Amino acid sequence: MERSAEQTPEAEVGGGLSRGQIVRERLGDLSDVAADLELAVDEPMARHTTLRLGGPADLWARPRSLGALQALLARAHAAALPVTFVGSGTNLLVRDGGLRGIVINLGHLSDVARPDPEGAPGRVEVEAGASTGKLLKAAIAWELGGLEFLGGVPGSVGGGLVMNAGTYLGEFTDVVTEVRSLRRDGTLVRRDHDGCGFRYRASDLPPSEIVIGATLELTPRPRADVEADVAGLRARRREREPTGVANSGSTFKNPPGDYAGRLIEAAGLKGTRIAGAFVSPKHANWLVVERRSTTAATDLLALVDLVRAKVEEVHGVRLELELKVIGD
Ligand SMILES: Cc1cc2nc3c(=O)[nH]c(=O)nc-3n(C[C@H](O)[C@H](O)[C@H](O)COP(=O)(O)OP(=O)(O)OC[C@H]3O[C@@H](n4cnc5c(N)ncnc54)[C@H](O)[C@@H]3O)c2cc1C
Predict the structure, then answer these.
(1) I need a surface site. Which of 68, 84, 169, 277 has the fewest CB within 10 A?
(2) Is 254 in the pocket of ligand 1 (CB under 6 A)?
(3) Residue 231 lies in a domain
């Protein structure tokens, strides 16, 4: 299934064709996998990020089968086209120029299974496109503990593994036994827990590979106990986190022994604004964007730079971004 986003004159780059149409042509014949491949040319990334910012992806692709994903990767590789992997876009700032080449999203590959409830009751297999909410819901239904930390953490499992997403209740590293990914040429790579290099909001999973799934080891736990922890975490989040604004959660990582939010607030930056982007008065580590404002990614990036410079001037600490910034 292919569709074309509304064309802007700027998107036309040669022979009347848009960037997306040129990329689509370079990929060649895809009829053998067409039924299993959703494609959109010149797709605005603002539709696929929770910050609601970002220019177009030349070609936005959502495979419905592993075979279609492998075929797409192999053809992109053969045509020397750049490839970017995007999950639910909850930790992404795409620059206003957009993303060149192919942007792959695994939202259609989202199975969560418990293959051996008798022999290995805690083992869960999950595809990377599953949302963290779907995974947590399944664990609760199976009366398995270990994923309580996901209460209120949005995103896909693939993004969560790459980011080692988590909260004070835990993080992905605590439950992962294997991660599976595909290289650009479509070959499968399996990594055990130690091979993933998980650390605070980061991993060594290479950006050149697309994570397709993982094996988790969870622990049998009464449903009521799991639900109570998740509800407690959600309630705490509701109290502290801004609502009604476009955001990506925490913008900066906490520096060792301190909190980015505390440093930003102490530097007097709460409420500081550039266009519709501002430092949330509720939680200073959330750089948020007013909905329906005409804010650009460059405005948010300018705010990031301003906050960083001021925090460094006041506290002598250089904040590191948790937010991933990609694109032209
Ligand atoms: C309201 C809100 C609250 C949040 N709270 C938390 C929190 O409490 N704790 C926390 O850790 N984070 C939090 N976040 C940030 C975010 O939810 C996590 O970082 C999440 O794991 C990102 O997942 P994603 O699918 O959205 O990834 P994306 O934002 O789409 O991508 C993040 C990175 O992962 C890569 N990636 C994504 N999928 C794949 C794949 N299949 N293969 C290879 N690379 C891939 C991307 O290229 C990118 O580098 C919050 C965000 C929001 C909006």
Answers:
(1) 169
(2) no
(3) no
Q: Are residues 15 and 48 in the same domain?
A: yes
Residue whose C-alpha is closest to residue 45's, from 271, 249, 297, 286 = 297
Q: Does the residue 233 lie in any domain?
A: no
Residue scoring higher pLDDT (293 or 251): 251
In a shared domain, residues 221 and 116: yes
pLDDT tens-digit series, residues 119-153: 999 999 999 999 999 999 999 999 999 999 999 99
4 lines ligand 1 (CB under 6 A): no
Given the residues 24, 95, 201, 221, select the one marked as catalytic: 201
Run of H or E including 227: helix 223-240
Does the active-site annotation cover 110? no
Domain that residue 28 falls in:
2-104
pLDDT at 6 over 80: no
Q: With a 6 A CB cut-off, is 47 part of the ligand 1 pocket?
A: no
CATH of the domain at 258: 3.90.78.10
pLDDT band at 275 (very low <50, low <70, confident <90, very high): very high
Q: Is the CB of 88 under 6 A from ligand 1?
A: yes
Find where tokens 């009829």 sit. 31
Distance between Cα 43 and ligand 1 center (Å): 20
Q: Is residue 319 part of a domain?
A: yes
- Pairwise CA distance, residues 213 & 109, whole Å: 9
**Domain match, 120 and 210 both:** yes
Give the global pTM: 0.95
CATH code of the domain covering residue 129: 3.30.465.10
Note if 250 is an active site residue: yes
Give the number of domains in the chain. Answer: 3
What are the beta bridge partners of residue 219? 145
pLDDT digits (tens, 9 = 90+) for 15-39: 789 999 999 999 999 999 999 999 9
Tokens 């999203």 identify what position? 105
For residue 10, pLDDT over 80 is answered with no
Q: Is residue 178 part of a domain?
A: yes
